[in-house]
Specification:
CATH superfamily: P-loop containing nucleotide triphosphate hydrolases
Bound molecules: adenosine-5'-triphosphate, magnesium ion
Largest sheet: 6 strands, mixed
Distance between the termini: 18 Å
Radius of gyration: 17 Å
Number of strands: 10
CATH architecture: 3-Layer(aba) Sandwich
Shape: globular
């Protein structure tokens, strides 16, 4: 379970302040499939980065399974991020000097050795429809393939929480549905999914849809 209590994020720099999140309360139960929608700049990516422990709230607290993550020591927080959380970034960056397979396997090197990680990576890439690109380098694949490789990378450590920031953003409708089926299966297996999208047609995949508006959650529907 993830519990965010009165979280705010204020970005300051070059003289102006942006209140990207403004006192958000949110509880997400294990196994939920939450979709977050909202206009550009409303704070969706900021919210995901806070829920995933990638960025620290200016005010408020985030608990994951009963632990206040910013009261944990660095080692335990890294371990939580590495084992339990899979993050699909809005703007995925792969390491340019590693091929697709090596990029997908990379996060597993930060957790205890897992048997058969190479096979698992190949299987994930196959499921995501880019099994033919395992030995290509990032500059040799398309934007949508890059996105799919970054989804495989987020899933390699078998996380219990998947945070996905517009994971189907650059994809055609057919590929988008294939990716959504992968997320649906992940969710059926008990994983928590929190996903940002601009596509209202994807709401049917969610157990809960939240709309963000300038730093607030304005509307929740089940
Ligand atoms: N690192 C940063 N420094 C300063 N301001 C930031 C930073 N990151 C985000 N912002 C600002 O915070 C607000 C929320 O940004 P955020 O990226 O969370 O929006 P979003 O809802 O994900 O938008 P989009 O749909 O365009 O991805 C915006 O006004 C943005 O300009
Ligand atoms: Mg965003």
């Amino acid at each position: 379970m993830i519990v965010a209590s009165r979280i705010s994020k204020i970005y300051s720099g070059n003289g102006n302040e942006v209140r990207a999140l403004d006192g958000v309360d949110l509880t997400i139960q294990s196994g939920e499939f939450v979709i977050i929608i909202g206009r550009s700049g409303s704070g969706k990516s900021t919210l995901l980065s806070l829920l995933g422990g990638l960025s620290r709230p200016t005010h408020g607290s985030i608990e994951i399974d009963g632990n206040d993550i910013w009261k944990m020591n660095d080692k335990d927080l890294s371990k939580l991020r590495g084992h339990e959380i899979g993050f699909v970034f809005q703007f995925p960056g792969l390491m340019p000097t590693l091929d697709v397979l090596e990029n997908v396997i990379l996060p597993s090197s930060f957790v205890e050795k897992r048997e058969g990680v190479g096979d698992r990576a190949i299987k994930l890439l196959d499921t995501l429809g880019i099994g033919g690109k395992v030995n290509s380098f990032p500059h040799q694949i398309s934007g949508g393939e890059l996105k799919r490789a970054s989804i495989a990378r987020a899933l390699i450590n078998d996380p219990s929480i998947i945070l996905a920031d517009e994971p189907t953003g650059d994809l055609d409708a057919e590929t988008e549905m294939e990716i959504m089926e992968v997320f649906r299966q992940m969710n059926d297996e008990g994983r928590t999914i929190i996903m940002v999208t601009h596509n209202p047609d994807l709401s049917s995949f969610a157990s809960r849809v939240m709309r963000m508006d300038t730093g607030h959650i304005r509307l929740e529907a089940r």
